[in-house]
Amino acid sequence: MPAITINHAREHIGEQVTIQGWLYNKRSSGKILFLQVRDGTGVIQAVISAVDTSALFDQAEGLTRETSLVMRGTVRADDRAPTGCELQPTSIDVIHSPDVPFPIDLKEHTPGFLMDQRHLWIRTGRQVPILRIRDAVFRAFRQFFHDRGFIATEAPILTGTSVEGTTTLFELDYFGDKAYLSQSGQLYLEATAMALGNVYWIGPAFRAEKSKTRKHITEFWIAEAEMAFCDHAANLEIQEQLVSYIVDFVAGERKQELQQLGRDPAALRAQVKLPFPRIDYADAVDRLSKAGHDITFGDDFGAPHEATLAEMFGRPVFVERFPSAMKPFYMKRDPKDEARVLGADLIAPEGYGEIIGGSQREDSYAALVAHMEEQKLPLDAYQWYLDLRRFGSVPHAGFGMGMERVVTWLCGAAHIREAIPFARQINRLYP
Amino acid sequence: MPAITINHAREHIGEQVTIQGWLYNKRSSGKILFLQVRDGTGVIQAVISAVDTSALFDQAEGLTRETSLVMRGTVRADDRAPTGCELQPTSIDVIHSPDVPFPIDLKEHTPGFLMDQRHLWIRTGRQVPILRIRDAVFRAFRQFFHDRGFIATEAPILTGTSVEGTTTLFELDYFGDKAYLSQSGQLYLEATAMALGNVYWIGPAFRAEKSKTRKHITEFWIAEAEMAFCDHAANLEIQEQLVSYIVDFVAGERKQELQQLGRDPAALRAQVKLPFPRIDYADAVDRLSKAGHDITFGDDFGAPHEATLAEMFGRPVFVERFPSAMKPFYMKRDPKDEARVLGADLIAPEGYGEIIGGSQREDSYAALVAHMEEQKLPLDAYQWYLDLRRFGSVPHAGFGMGMERVVTWLCGAAHIREAIPFARQINRLYP
């Protein structure tokens, strides 16, 4: 009898099935034992009566948490169960029974303890639905762009140059040369867009930031797209369509997981109705100032500012046309006001912070060199990037999305470390 | 008039269209000028007659390679063209005209020169179809596993431990601790499989190997899958199904690109008919020895051995049950012969070498500790990995596929550096 997975159990009501998994939890109510069995796709409850099946009852009573097992039995409809069914087992074969108690009980633990046990923590509670939602967010991003004729590509991780300065770079020895871990694939995606048209990727990015906040990890996954023949306005349009698509995709495919996390798929969908509001940076500063924040034109936003803006709109909001001095050299200046860039950040609802940063890219060779000289960047290392403006430069634009930020928001997670299987933080390299 | 992409031009025969792209090449035949325009999705030929459109002819005659432009015109059927059509332009708007000649002409250049110009080289010749095939290989891998209920995940890139020894590791300073760039996500995928069931990912992997061969790069993309409740035999079955699926997917979606590279989609499909042959390591050594190779039981295979095996079979071939001493600690020993492992390598046809390495994993705590002690590995650093055998251990198996090796094979490329947008080699960190 081939095994089925728990997410498909409700398609087998009345049938004999085999389930392979782990004992997640166990409780008894007098002469009835309830086993929660998990297999990664879901959790099913097996009900064993001491009266009807006393040998099985005795065997099951001795099982401890995270015992691996193969269970055979009949699927019964049960409207109260999240899976819509339960199992009436006829046999249990134990594969491996732990010698010591599973270290994570289902009560509260400190974050430090849970992160030390991350390899086991991911088997429990909210972590399985979060990681299943993460899978759907990644797939949604890729599907969106593939459906629009974009080509998937990869940027190098090891680079001799860096996009946003060297203060937050991880450096390593590369056969006697200095190399850095990439903070963004953008510059390489620009080169690839000039070869392939529209491109996208999801890859790891690294920032050696010492900040310990609930929104920062040192290794994160960035999802980027770069489009030839694209301007600032079209860039924002595709970003809002993307975010709306991802939410709709996840709300459809991972409805049960969202509900397990206490998230309402319909409410998430309502948050991302198009179009998203666009406000000018100066307007944002003004609104924040009026709301009591101590902020003036030229200041960057911190978490409290982003939270206030999010609260004002209740849905994702673009803040556009930041002062040029605040932003990297590659952003195109607004022709109406050289002191501003044709770029925008997208702020997530509910205080989850910036999820996208994007811009039209400077396509003039002379202007790009001028920006680089202003910021005292080494022109030599960027010759290849400057070549993109020497040979058939075109208006182009793109953006980067922090995947863990998006997962944190959709899951309503308290900390970004739960949005990635094995988070890396300033004091965390294990497991 | 919204722009169309060149791959969709044949759907607009007889219509007026706009195409945005770059001038790839130009030739004239007396009073007729032929412009090859590329946009990343394909190349279309625009035909301009000096008699019918003399002003346009004069303008076009002055255009240089890699000029970016917007061209309007009528699509005409042309059975001789790879796109099935050509363009009869009515106007050309130049976006940017290079001041200097494009450095890559369409003749021969040295590999070193081309790699220095990689950011421009990817616009030319075989490079565009190779990168478009790469996109399809990546998508095929993900589609295969998603369709089978696997969950996409990510392993960390920065690790405190390593899977296969430290001699070929890139090391870096991580806030005062030593960290290494991952050579494989396998150990983490094993942990995730115990939480989510069946998992897969594609991520970057790093090997600080000093070897300069046409099959090695220091940064490559590894595609891995890990399956709970899976044994060696089932592991090989899913690998051969995967490879067959990828070839079929690429032959279907990228038929034109394969043909541009001189590869016959039907011949590739014929190479991957199921099942793939499985030969024992001892048998492989015997065959190689008889074929004149100087090899004895216990030796690893090099490129010449792999090439001979490939030639013997003319299709992918599994070599299984390698001597335990040659293989990493995590491979499960064959219960019939402890000196062998339940693992296999998959050798690609045509001398493209090993494309997959996989095994059933050791699921016994005691056996795993014994293997680690034999290989003098630090038990402390692997406590989290050992925990997977302490708490509900199950038979499980998995494998890793070198994506650039697969792309090189399918494209018939001469060197792996062409199978990735920006290759990293021992002497190559730029661009």
Draw up the topology in text.
Two copies of one chain form a homodimer.
Chain A: E1 3-4, E2 16-29, E3 32-38, E4 43-49, H1 54-61, E5 68-77, E6 85-96, H2 111-116, H3 118-121, H4 127-147, E7 151-152, E8 158-159, E9 171-174, E10 177-181, H5 186-196, E11 198-206, E12 219-228, H6 232-253, H7 255-260, H8 265-271, E13 278-280, H9 281-290, H10 303-313, E14 317-320, E15 333-334, E16 337-341, E17 343-347, E18 354-360, H11 365-374, H12 383-390, E19 396-402, H13 403-411
Parallel strand pairs in A: 1-2, 7-11, 13-14
Antiparallel strand pairs in A: 2-3, 2-5, 3-4, 5-6, 8-10, 9-10, 11-12, 12-19, 14-17, 15-16, 17-18, 18-19
Helix pairs in contact in A: 4-6, 4-13, 6-8
CATH class of the largest domain in chain A equals Alpha Beta
The largest pleated sheet of chain A is described as:
8 strands, mixed
CATH superfamily of the largest domain in chain A: Bira Bifunctional Protein, Domain 2
Instruction: Work out the number of β strands of chain A.
Output: 19
Structural class of chain A: alpha+beta
How many structural domains in the coordinates of chain A?
A: 2
Assembly state (oligomeric): homodimer
Short synopsis of the structure:
Two copies of one chain form a homodimer. Chain A is an alpha+beta fold and 431 residues long.
Description of the molecule:
With 431 residues, chain A is α+β, with helices and mostly antiparallel strands. Chain A folds into two domains: 3-96, Beta Barrel (OB fold (Dihydrolipoamide Acetyltransferase, E2P)), CATH 2.40.50.140; 119-419, Bira Bifunctional Protein, Domain 2 (BirA Bifunctional Protein, domain 2). In chain A, 31% of the residues lie in helices and 27% in strands. The first copy, chain A, is built from 13 helices and 19 strands. Chain A has helices at residues 54-61, 111-116, 118-121, 127-147, 186-196, 232-253, 255-260, 265-271, 281-290, 303-313, 365-374, 383-390, 403-411; strands spanning 3-4, 16-29, 32-38, 43-49, 68-77, 85-96, 151-152, 158-159, 171-174, 177-181, 198-206, 219-228, 278-280, 317-320, 333-334, 337-341, 343-347, 354-360, 396-402. In chain A, the strands form four sheets. An eight-stranded mixed sheet of chain A has the order 7-11-12-19-18-17-14-13. In chain A, strands 1, 2, 3, 4, 5 and 6 form a six-stranded mixed sheet that branches. In chain A, strands 8-10-9 form a three-stranded antiparallel sheet, with no helix packed on it. In chain A, a hairpin with a 6-residue loop joins strand 17 (343-347) and strand 18 (354-360). The longest helix of chain A is centred in the middle third of the chain and has 22 residues, at 232-253. Chains A and B meet through strand 2, helix 3, helix 4, strand 7 and strand 8 of A and strand 2, helix 3, helix 4, strand 7 and strand 8 of B.
